[in-house]
Fold:
Amino acid sequence: MNKDGELVIDVHGLCKSFGSIKAVQDFAIGLHRGRIFGFLGPNGSGKTTTIRMLCGLLKIDSGYGTCLGFDLLTQTHEIRRQTGYMTQHFSLYEDLTIQENLELVVRLYDMAPTQDIVARQIHSMGLTEMRHIRAKALSGGWKQRLALAACTIHTPKLLLLDEPTAGVDPQARREFWDQIHHFAAQGTTVLVSTHYMDEVERCHEIAYISRGHLLVRGTLEEILTKSGLITWIVDGSDLLSLSTTLKTKPGVDQIGFMGNSLRLSSTNPDLLLQTINAFKKDNHYRWQETQPNAEDLFILMAKDSNNVQ
Structure:
């Protein structure tokens, strides 16, 4: 879907406080139809609060806008009817089977015929062989698939997924993301919060929020380019000692182990290069410049967010 398409979410100046804690401050964003939007930020940054305001589950203190064409202040019921929300923690009934949980969701949405709708969803989500198993007996991956089936059974136009793959094995996460891209290809807009950097790279766009403020948004490539990050990899012997030494050197903004190598990043290329050149004379080490990745960017933004008041 082209970025010039229909705006599914168009909100401005959203604020939400809990007592003296300002959870979200002057939040504004526009999301286009059929896009997968990654929502990043440290724990407590305001991601969940923002998601709940967008789907009408949490009343905003101030601000305005629309979601799915409905007013965020006066038409929250209509928004909830056309939105699928998957919470951080499994929220379906543990003592009910997969089929019984989905039947309950269908009845809550007042959909009919119940059995036909549930049967189609069970088949499309690959749950047929598991349909009579109670939710409490499912692994994390199967619970995740059931939760996704439940929040999409009413064919929502917007999916809000709050850290949906936490604690799930890599294979289950990959299958989950295949489903997400399938929904997006059909025109569903997806906003997903995540801490997994490989998932960030699967999103069409990303945004970083900290202390209730939206700091940056765009494609991963756009944000990496604007950040000015450069990254080097060094291989050799006694990297632990080298890491300790480099941490205090000019231009080294980030440093950490990646397998049998050290990875260094900086937003000051000239200063970092000066530092590296001083160590290149040592034949024990091999240096190579590489492309910065999502993890490099996330760590940089986490550091920058400490300056947000």
Summary: The mean pLDDT is 92. The chain is about 35% helix and 30% strand. The radius of gyration is 22 Å. The first strand starts at residue 7 and ends at 18.
